[in-house]
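Lab manual, section 2.4: Encoding a predicted structure.

Procedure: take the sequence of the chain (29 residues), apply the prediction step described in section 2.3, and record the output as structure tokens. A sample record is shown.
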Amino acid sequence: MQGISQDDFATTIRVLQRTIENVGGDAWH
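Recorded output:
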């Protein structure tokens, strides 16, 4: 994956984690 900075990557991970929690975090633990 080129053209994505480390900050953008960290932000994407944070959004994914928040989405997973909203969908149902218990199923992911």
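Check your result against the sample. The chain has one helix and no strands.
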